[in-house]
Task: structure prediction
Amino acid sequence: NSMPSLPSTSHLQTSNANLVSAKIMQDLTSVKEKIVDLENRSRRNNLRVDGLPENEGETWEQTEAKLKELINLKLGLDGDSMLIERAHRVGKRDGGRPRVVVARFLNWKEKNEVLQNSRKLQRSGIYLNDDFAEETVRRRKELLPVMKKMREQGHFAILKVDKLITKEHNL
Result:
């Protein structure tokens, strides 16, 4: 009549600690994802403008005026009526390229209209992009070569925030 041996108390404590640790890591990952999502949502009215000429000592007001001029003259939209909460340069001056402008539009539809018309800037050296959280930018960089490969293979492929959306073309 031998009784099966029970696990030692230290073994149970270690096992329980591993379960708690795994749960904490899972919760931490979930919280990080929520923070990235919230940061992306808080940036959804922002537009990043790369290549807009910069003057020495340029003020926020001057940067906004340059952006509205670009919207009027190059995109053919009514930039003067668009409400831009803030337009400022980011990063350190390096003496070469102009710093990126981050512009926050009061109205998402207006920001989106500007972005939709950005193809009119081809070969101008000025690029308009959505403003995403750092983690989202990293994920998009990883997905870019995959998206290009899918397109080369004749598939429809786009990046939607940090997800790759693909469809097969029905010929």
Summary: The chain has four helices and six strands. The CA atoms of residues 134 and 163 lie 15 Å apart.
